[in-house]
Amino acid sequence: MPRTLFHRLLAAGALSMVALAASAQPIKLAYIEVLSGPFGAVGELGSKNLNFIVDEFNGRGGVLGARKFEVVNFDSKGSPQEALSALKAANDQGIQYIVQGNSSAVAGALIDAINKHNSRSPDKQMVYLNFAAVDPDLTDEKCSFWHFRFDANSDMKMNAITDAIKKDAKVKKVFLINQDYAFGHQVTAAAKSMLAAKRPDVQIVGEDLHPMGKVKDFAPYAAKIRASGADTIITGNWGADLTLLVRAVRDSALNVEWYTYYGGAYGSAAAIGDDGVGKVKVVTEWNVNTPNPKMDPFYEAYKAKWPEPADEFFYYRMKVMVGMLAAAMDKAKSTEPLKVASAMEGMSWTGDMGEVTMRKQDHQLLQPLLVSTFGKVGQPGIRLPIENSGYAFGNAVIVPAKDTALPTNCKMKRPAAQ
After folding, report:
1. Cβ contacts of residue 297 below 8 Å, gap of 6+?
2. I want to staple 257 with a disulfide (CB 3.0 to 4.6 A). Which of 137, 197, 232, 321 is the partner?
3. Once rounded to an integer, what is the mean pLDDT over residues 118-123?
């Protein structure tokens, strides 16, 4: 064989081996979340949820033939600055898919940083997959081609809550209590605006914005709620700030209705107890008491692996996120962020809870929402508990995906190749 031909065949073989090795590498997802401090349990729960989803997906064959996803954890400590350091560390490891959700302040910092990074380094671009940061501005004035939100934003959730209140004659006097950061401010503003439009007879008898993650005793806040004469509380609180608030209100024997964003997670069910049966509502995209032939065995398998109360499955939207990401990669026949992002925007995809659409205009997912009511296992519609508490949410009123859509002012700036 001529030496030149031999060298060409050798080089071609080497390139094929490199391509084969690359195709066998896992597709890493950088999970940048608060994994320590007062909200660390929230981030740890999300990590368990995401890793189980990824393992289940990988077990069904993976993506692009046989490639697997792999989750790599980074602790943001709930700080935008720490999250940016984690983003740099993820980039240094060659990770191009970023997953984050808890804290809209962190989300805003990540969006800005990824926008700048992608414009400077087109060969190392990143896509940001947001599973829980719900400030509407993130898909409005701050919208980005590289950012995709898989949770309903806070205005969409408040729209569902106030639709329920519109039909709830018991609601006359409302107290708004929220954490003092972007999301909490947004919940307060949306509640005021939407209640005024849908139930002008309802009085806002009090409002409070408290330091995030720093209040250990919510008894003074419970006393303010009592003094206001409120019959209903609306809160977007999450993590320890929700659990401690619920306990303080329960301990003060306040007889109030609750409309919450996160009443179904982080130890709240046990804290609510009998006092909340029929009174506490939550807006979510799924709950364990909505019978589903696909989610029921998935949930059973999850609880078999993670039986502890604190390890409840909460983030169904992560299942949608991983499914849509894989579908976009299969459609693009690539893991290159630009091709995958282009494939995902505007995509309609059928999940276990029905069809969802990633709206092209602003990269906000449109999905069915459930407004569910707290109950005790054994009552009609409450077949399974959450967090082994004996309580759960059920009897959901389902808001179809098309009815969750709200206007956006997003003016998406797409890469030149688009």
Report:
1. none
2. 232
3. 94
